[in-house]
Write a structure and sequence with these properties.
Layout (H helix, E strand, L loop, with lengths): L2 H23 L10 E5 L13 E8 H16 L6 E5 L11 E8 L5 H12 L6 E5 L4
Antiparallel strand pairs: 1-3, 2-4, 2-5, 3-4
């Protein structure tokens, strides 16, 4: 690998670390510069995502997104959910309801029924409304 390639990898990692530091304190309803805020697992062992990973998707209202995100972020960081969670900060292009936001809790593999169910139960315990699980398409 050339020195330039090493430098670029270091730069990418530096940018990713800065983004995660930013996301630690970001408030979804107050953000406009980025579409997603993310939280990653720090505690506990968890398998790396596979090509058949997936996510629990929950629709939220702007009025509730900040409080729900704080709870989901804390559970994610503590290792109680999957490997990553994220929340939208603004409506998607063409979204009919401008007051709707999306929250996603990622699992490493949609084929691990026990893990998918465990993460779903942890989210339901928060009193969240309708949820759906969507598997990634394998590459």
């Amino acid at each position: 690998m050339s020195e330039g390639a090493d430098f670029n990898l270091d730069l990418i990692q530096m940018v990713q670390r800065a983004r995660m530091l930013h996301d630690e304190t970001a408030v979804p309803s107050a953000m406009t510069a980025v579409y997603w805020i993310e939280a990653k697992r720090r505690d506990g062992d968890y398998p790396a995502p596979t090509s058949t990973a997936g996510e629990w998707r929950i629709k939220l209202r702007v009025a509730e997104v900040d409080a729900v995100w704080e709870r989901v972020k804390a559970l994610t960081v503590a290792g109680e959910l999957g490997y990553k969670s994220k929340v939208s900060t603004k409506p998607a292009a063409g979204q009919a309801d401008p007051e709707e936001r999306s929250l996603c809790a990622r699992t490493y593999d949609a084929g691990d029924d026990a893990d998918v169910a465990r993460v779903g139960e942890a989210l339901r315990a928060l009193g969240l409304g309708e949820m759906e699980y969507v598997a990634d398409k394998s590459s």
